[in-house]
Each structure stands twice: as C-alpha cells, then as structure tokens.
Amino acid sequence: MFLYTLIQIIELLTNVLVMLVIVQFVIGLLLAFNVINTSNDFVLAIYRSINSLLEPVLGPIRRILPGTGSIDFSPLVLIILLQVMLIVLTNVAIAAQ
Fold it and tell me: Which structural domain range is residue 42 located in?
C-alpha cells in the first residue's frame, strides 16, 4: 500500500517536470520566432525561472549527448528517461505484491 502511494507521488512529480520541460520548449520557440517580445519582463522571468529549475537535470544530459548543432535533444531524453523510470517502478510495485 505504501509503495503505491510512493509511486503515485513520484508520478506526480514526474508529470510536473515533464510539463515544465514542455512549457520551457514552447516559450523558447515563441521567443526565438519573436512571437513574444524579448522586452516582456514577465515572460522572461518565467522562462529564466523554469530554466534555473531544469538546468540541474538537463545539464548532465547535455554533457553526455553528442553535439547536434542548434538542436537540443536533452529535453526529449529527459522525458523518455522519466517515462522509463515510471514503467520500471510500476512493474517493481506489481511484482512486489
């Protein structure tokens, strides 16, 4: 019972992290294509906050991945790793019954 609760909490935190990655990606695209003006302090504050939250997680992945030019695959790798982790934890909980 406790194991299921712990897995649900980890799943919730994983979903929040994935949503932050998606929001960072969308805001980055909007800033890159000048849909949002870079002088908008509110959007820049949100973008910098999300970057500072995700950099400790994405930084090590960026160092491991080979250079791909201007395309950053680290958010995609992070999302895949988080989903694999959830699958493994769920299967461990099922096997522990």
Answer: 2-95
